[in-house]
Amino acid sequence: MLISEQLKEIYNKYREGKLAHAYLIETNNIPKLIEELKIIIKAISCSEEYHDNCTKCNLCNLIDKNNLPSLITIEPDGTSIKKSQIEELKKSFETKPIYNKYNIYLIKNAEKLNGSSANAMLKFVEEPTEGILGFFITTNKDIIIPTIKSRCQILTVKYAYKTIIEKFNISEEQLNDYLLSLKNYLAKIKTNDLINNKEELLNKYSERKEIELIFKLLFEIYNNLLLKTLNKEIDDSLFLDIIEENSKSIIIKRLNIISNFLHNLSYNVNIELLLDKFVIEMRKECE
Questions:
Q1: pTM higher than 0.70, yes or no?
Q2: Separation of alpha carbons 90 and 80, rounded Å
Q3: Which residues contact 76 (CB under 8 A, 6 or more apart)?
Q4: Half-sphere exposure of 262 (CA within 13 A, CB side)
Q5: What are the angstrom distances between the C-alpha of 44 and each of 17, 24, 58, 231?
Q6: pLDDT tens-digit profile, the chain (287 residues)
Q7: Angstrom distance (rounded) from CA 14 to CA 227
């Protein structure tokens, strides 16, 4: 099986009869992780000995096409995972699976479970039912609700990226658009105007996840500067002001500011207030 060594451990535990009922997996590439998890799910669901590209039955095809009734993926509906989504999952798992051994759920961006949906999930993780297997997937395990986190086996799976486009799953056109917006946004931070530059982003990007992506790109830029390896996909001329201010101490301080912004953004804090705070903190570093 062509999967990460950390995920092979799940299959090994299955072979030993020691499979946990729930796993919390932190990763830097959720689509890639889910792709590999599906291979694990195929292997533990196979009625015989699993082999890649086997065509003896239709199980693998159902998993690939997300048509297996006993495999349910839940992802945020808007800014959070709703209680109604969890209740629907419970209802679906009231019966035993027909095609395979387990009822399996994947919770994408598990940090988006809100209070009520997390409480609804506790039945699965506090009182595990035989034949139910769960995967909570996140990019930051530290912000997962403790009651969920403490009842899961925790794994970390990191992937290497060749390009920023691959890392953020965007097109070259989108990358250039985001970088130009960042350039205009950062230019206003250095002025003495009132804190009004948030409109530079909010008027153009209405979805919270796009603001998050832009700040992840900004983190990438500063991190590359720190490592002296500015990515070739980023036009250096767009960020000459950043490149010129490349003292290590300033870069580290700004990385911390960006990291804190992203952390607070994940908690659904008011985005306008976060952007105001970001400008204030960045301006202090420009003085």
A1: no
A2: 18
A3: 108, 109, 112
A4: 19
A5: 11, 18, 15, 40
A6: 668 888 999 999 998 999 999 999 999 888 889 999 999 998 888 877 777 777 777 888 888 888 888 999 999 988 889 999 999 999 999 888 877 889 999 999 999 998 899 999 987 888 878 889 999 999 888 889 888 999 999 999 988 877 788 788 888 899 889 988 888 888 777 766 656 678 888 888 888 889 999 999 888 888 777 766 555 556 555 555 555 555 778 888 888 999 999 988 887 788 999 998 998 888 876 55
A7: 41
Distance of CA 192 to the CA centre of its chain: 36
- Closest CA relative to residue 135, chosen from 28, 4, 23, 14: 23
Q: Strand, helix or coil at 156?
A: strand
